[in-house]
Amino acid sequence: MNFDFSKNHFELFGIPPLYQIDAIQLEQAYRDIQSQVHPDKFSHLSDAERRLSMQWSTQANEAYQTLRQPLGRARYLLHLNGVELHEETNTAMSPAFLMQQMEWREAIGEARAAKDVPELEHLSGQLRADIQAQQDQLADLLDKDKNYPKAAEIVRELKFMGKLREEINVALEALDA
Amino acid sequence: MSYSTKVLDHYENPRNVGTFGKDDEGVATGMVGAPACGDVMKLQIKVNKDGVIEDAKFKTYGCGSAIASSSLVTEWVKGKTLDEALSIKNTQIAEELALPPVKIHCSVLAEDAIKAAVADYKAKHGAMVETAACKGSDCSN
What we know:
The complex is a heterodimer of chains A (177) and B (141). By secondary structure, chain A is mostly helical. Chain A is built from seven helices and no strands. Helices cover 72% and strands 0% of the residues of chain A. Chain A is elongated, with a radius of gyration of 21 Å.
């Protein structure tokens, strides 16, 4: 087995470096690698070779976990293209977007306080549509337009929308819906 | 993870929660958000004629540390000039609240909210000064 640790995650699995990928192809490629380095297969190998196989397996696992999540994949693609998200320190989102976030949070809070399950479900549906639209836009920005700064903005926005989804789910669970 | 007593105090009894009236004079707003956790923070300052922040309010959707950080800065900015308010650093906030490393971004958010509010005030105020200065004189250039 040929271990090349300099490959990026996409090269490792032999898939094109795109946001829109074939999930089945990715999973198949991952399983192929894991089956090649399964510990049972190298009980006859030296310690050094075994260690290398272990590292290879760990790297494949990490790469798979990164690429299978849409946001993880987007973040990694941006990283490959030299754009970092700075999620911890970049707080300057567009005021209109933040205002909208405040309104979403208020709407969720009010629906939760009023124990209004239909309203929460309505918000959930609306949010799902919004997230889908953002993801479609992200696919175009990354795969077609190659507009990475704008794509980074969308990824940051999607992080907030993911948080909204969590908030709605927590509220629905609390109301036992 | 456990919160420090100071965080809990601000979280359970947040100071200065709310929003100023839309037409209140000398009010400026700073809005910031942290993609890492999806927290959003709105900080408003009310500045008097001498350029001193006489009141502040906040509204934050986020974890206990984010709420405590914004509550704390509303207390800290009161009585300060704009420049003094700008000198508040996230490290001071984090230290005061004994924030753990994973929550440092909450203090960054609060520091940036102050900066955004002051910038908003200066943008509005600067425009107003210009308008006043232009009154009755030729400002066509």
